[in-house]
Amino acid sequence: MENASVQILASPGAPPDPTYNQPVLRLVIVGCGRVGSQIAANMDRQGHDVVIVDRDPNAFSRAANRGILGNSFKGDQVVGNGTDVDVLRRAGIERADGFVAVTEGDNRNIMASQIAKDVYKVPHVVARIYDPERAEAYEKIGLHTICPTIEGARHIEKVLLERETH
């Protein structure tokens, strides 16, 4: 009889299994929409300590209803404005290794990220900025930004310009 081996594959887009021998990161994520909740869930599954902040208490239940922040989520949820220093302290910003601002507003994301970077000296800070001009300006002053407008356009252009190899 032949030996059978079973290989378990993760579903497409799923984060990798927790990386053992890697330091656990303490992360604060401001914004519990689709992107923020997905980052929180992925990082939590990888074994990191996650706190997600949103000013709308219903944001957490919406994420749970989408199957993102369900019962397996071990992180904390804090209701409040991510630009409020008291809210950020409750979220553990003083001990954070990483900070992500992904609210719907560029101004809030910029402000929260600057507080994390300049006031609390969080080593890794990322802000989502929809406006390409703002994203570029804040990159120049040392704030790491992700601009879905630019990234999305680049990806679409790449797909359009790819030639079939069959």
Task: Please tell me about this protein's structure.
By secondary structure, the chain is an alpha/beta fold. The chain has one domain (26-161): NAD(P)-binding Rossmann-like Domain (Rossmann fold), CATH 3.40.50. Helices cover 38% and strands 16% of the residues. The chain has six helices and six strands; from the N terminus they run βαβαβαβαβαβα. Helix 4 links the parallel strand 4 and strand 5 (124-128). 31% of the residues are buried. Residues 1-16 have low confidence and may be disordered.
What's the gist of this structure?
The chain has about 170 residues and is of the alpha/beta class. Helix content is about 40%, strand content about 15%.
Strand content: 15-25%
General form? globular
Number of DSSP strands? 6
Terminal CA distance reads 39 Å
Mean pLDDT: 88
Cα radius of gyration in angstroms = 18 Å
Low-confidence region ranges: 1-16
- In CATH, what is the class? Alpha Beta
CATH superfamily: NAD(P)-binding Rossmann-like Domain
CATH architecture: 3-Layer(aba) Sandwich
Helix content: 25-40%
Biggest beta sheet summary: 6 strands, parallel
Q: How do the SSEs run, as a string of H and E? A: EHEHEHEHEHEH
Number of helices: 6
Major β-sheet strand ordering: 3-2-1-4-5-6
Task: Determine the structural class based on helices, strands and strand pairing.
Answer: alpha/beta
CATH topology heading = Rossmann fold
- How many discrete domains? 1
